[in-house]
Amino acid sequence: MARLSRFKIVSLAGVFVLGLFAVPLPQPYVFPTVPYFPSMPVASGNSPTKAGVELGRHLFYDTALSLDSTVSCSSCHKQEHAFSDLEVRFSQGFHGAPQERNTPGLFNLAWYNGMFWDGRAASIEDQIFEPVRNHHEMNLSWMVVESRLRSSTMYPPMFEKAFGEMPIDSHLVSYALAQFLRTLISHQSKYDRVLSGETYFTDDEYQGFVIVNDQSMGNCLPCHTTDAHGLGTNGGFANNGLQESKSTTFDPGLYNVTKNPKDAGRFKIPSLRNLKFTAPYMHDGRFATIREVIDFYSEGVINQPTIDNKMAHASTGGMAFTETEKMQILAFLQTLNDSVFVSDPRFSNPFEP
What CATH number matches the domain at 190-334, 1.10.760.10, 1.10.10.10, 2.60.120.10, 3.10.150.10? Predict the structure, then answer.
């Protein structure tokens, strides 16, 4: 690992040689092979190991990372809801403080081009730093986090197993959490079983798939890919015509990061996977049901100067789906729900029996 390079460590026959002591190298974490996913981007200097992932899982569920030890990452990102906060428009952080945007699900994160709805963090590692020190989320300084972890009986051996004899600091915490988050891969829905030839779509599910991916019909595939690969998103950012640009409540999204006027109203494109578990929808959680989302794309799109050029029917307010088409789209979207993912014990709370 890159951070180990400050020590005189060499690898011989699968061990770290530290003076007279030989420490086994952490075993690499083996990711599932999903042939219809793009190659996973590799994080430079932070390749997941079994020990690092297990450490990250503990940190993810540990309330010690908040000022009064009441809030953990999992408080807002619940496994049974695909690591979102189901039916809560704005999650509550430290002392019940509401968040400014809806809590997104956490899965297949390695393929996104940026973290948070507005992309203000370039990587999963970078993203880790904000929630802990944010006064409305976990409200704790990283110096206190480091002190708590160093003085615990459980964490020093876990950090040493994952990273060697490195002092526990915020960077190692971010590395461990990022390793765990990269393992949250959703790939076991009915849609996935269809792609692998294990089962078939029903007629309505197939027609919904066609509508979503046909450029002359739903034309969803430029942003929500379910044909060329199975992620359900291109991992980028778009203005989908959700907000009136002249409104006093307009959220500029990516523009706040780039200051490029063309980015006004652009937000991270979420995956179509696991919609059953991640309501409400959009960056502001304005839609309570998937049907409301389909209705929006059918007849509620607001045309504006920075709307994505792939929104082909923006000038007419949307795609004008028939009731049958809406039902078929909904049927297809249901095939993307991964019930295995939301109950996988590898991602569960290690502090619970």
Answer: 1.10.760.10
Q: Which two tokens stand for residue 302?
A: 């607001």
For the chain, helix, strand, coil in percent to 5 are 40, 10, 55
Using one digit for the tens of pLDDT, what is the confidence trace for 262-313? Answer: 999 999 999 999 999 999 999 999 999 999 999 999 999 999 899 999 888 8
pLDDT at 97: 82
Q: Is the torsion defined by CA of 37, 41, 43, 49 positive or negative? A: positive
Beta strands in the chain (DSSP E): 10-12, 15-18, 21-24, 237-238, 267-268
Contact 298, 321 (CB under 8 A): yes
Fold agreement (2-186, 190-334) = yes
Q: What are the domain boundaries of the chain?
A: 2-186, 190-334
Q: Which two tokens stand for residue 45?
A: 């200097």
In terms of CATH, what superfamily is 2-186?
Cytochrome c-like domain (1.10.760.10)
N-terminal to C-terminal alpha carbon distance within the chain? 33
User: How many contiguous H segments (helices) and E segments (strands) does the chain have?
Assistant: 11, 5
Residue that wins the pLDDT comparison between 228 and 49: 49
* Band (108; pLDDT cuts 50, 70, 90): very high
Which residue's structure tokens are 């809030």? Answer: 71
pLDDT at 5 > cutoff 50? no
Please state the φ and ψ torsions of residue 121, each to the nearest 5 degrees: -115, 130
Separation in Å, CA 20 to CA 9, 16, 17, 23, 84: 12, 10, 7, 10, 47
The two three-digit tokens of residue 63, written as one number = 């309330």
Q: What are phi and psi of 92, to 5 degrees?
A: -105, 130
